[in-house]
Every structure is written in structure tokens, then in C-alpha cells.
Amino acid sequence: MHVAIIMDGxxxxxxxxxxxxLAGHKQGAESVRRAIRHAPCLGIETLTLYAFSSDNWKRPxxxxxxxxxxxAHFIEKEVAECRENGxxxxxxxxxxxxxxxxxxxxxxxxxxxxxxxxxxxxxxLDYSSRDMLxxxxxxxxxxxxxxxxxxxxxxxxxxxxxxxxxxxxxxxxCAYAEFFFTPVAWPDFSERDLEAAxxxxxxxxxxFGEVLDTSAA
Length: 217
Ligand code: FPP
What we know:
Blueprint: E1 2-6, H1 10-16, H2 21-38, E2 46-53, H3 61-84, E3 87-92, H4 102-112, E4 119-127, H5 129-136, H6 143-150, E5 156-159, E6 178-181, H7 191-203
Parallel strand pairs: 1-2, 1-5, 2-4, 3-4, 5-6
Helix pairs in contact: 1-2, 2-3, 3-4
Bound molecules: farnesyl diphosphate.
């Protein structure tokens, strides 16, 4: 199962306590750790996390710099545990605008965890689905080739923080995804919330455009 998460609500979570927005992102990184640890127990094989969209460059410079530092710190701290637990890390999105010191850290994290088979964690950085589509498309390409280039179809898309939009995330890959929106802010999103979303997904009937029950026809 492929689960993708739009981790929204960090800033508002922090502001509730009168804290700077970055405190929300810091706490959000803890939720990322929890989700990665718990995902395999729920039958999740691929987890794609929206950490920084190409539109996020428009945020105040100190918030952007803080997020980049947080990511670098997260990678430095988590790679060893990921490796021990069979977690493979990959990064999707543009790399040419990221801080110059972050790029080799991403590459090292990817190569150090490349043997992981229990869970694939894809972290979207400087990511825009429209840009990814434009970069991937070649004349004569068919659906399968494009899907192979972009990555697996999403089964379940979760967005925290109360908003109900896709925000240029995995537009092609979400063609048949089930959507789960929750008002819970990302820093508060617990193992139980992830489990509830997966259970709700399992209870839904996915028809992929077909009619599965013909008994009423
Ligand atoms: C959206 O909340 C969240 C982000 C733009 C950043 C997400 C980053 C993290 C969860 C932390 C680092 C990630 C990893 C992979 C370690 P928002 O700031 O838009 O919240 P708001 O809507 O309440 O303002």
C-alpha cells in the first residue's frame, strides 16, 4: 500500500501556544519519525511525505532556512535507524535550488539506505507535481512509462490541518487515490490517527470506474 501525506497545520499549531512557526515544524519532524516507525505495522510499503513544495520558497527567509536546517538535522539523525529497520529513504523534487550542503547529505542518505526493503520513504523537497510531469513527459510516452518515471500510484492520500486540497502534490499518481482529510494538525498526528486513516481506507470499496456489485442491476 502506498500512503502519501500532506503534513499541514504546523504553523497554526505553534501559533496556538504563541510560539514561532518553526517550533511547529520541529514538532512536525517528531510526527514524521512516528509515522515512519509505525507505517510497516499497518501494511504500508511506500510512504510519500510532502515536506517542502516549490511554492514554499515564497515563505519568509528565516522560516525557509529553518526548515532546511531541520531537514538536514533529521537526515543526519535518522539514517542509522532507518538502515537498521529496513527503511529506504528517497527524495523527490528539484535539487538545484536546495542549499548546496544539503544535496550531498540527501545523496548519502539515499545510498546508505538503498538496501532497505521493509518501507520506502519518499520525501518531497522543492516539489511541484506539475513541474515533475513536465520534466518526465516525452513524445510518444504511454501511461505505464510515465507512471514508471514518476513513481507508484497512491492508494491513500492523507492531508492534516483541516484544508482539503491537493496543492500540486502527486497529481498523476493520485488518479484513483482515496482521500482522507483530518482537522488534526500534523504535530499532533499520532500512530492512532495514522491507523484510523488506514482502517477507514480499508473499509472503502474501490471500484476504479467499474461496477463491482451487479446484484441490484
Ligand atoms: C505545512 O504546515 C508544513 C510544511 C510546509 C513543512 C513540513 C515539514 C515538516 C513536517 C518537518 C520536516 C520534515 C521532515 C521530513 C523531517 P504549515 O506551515 O503550512 O502550517 P499552517 O498551515 O498551519 O501555516
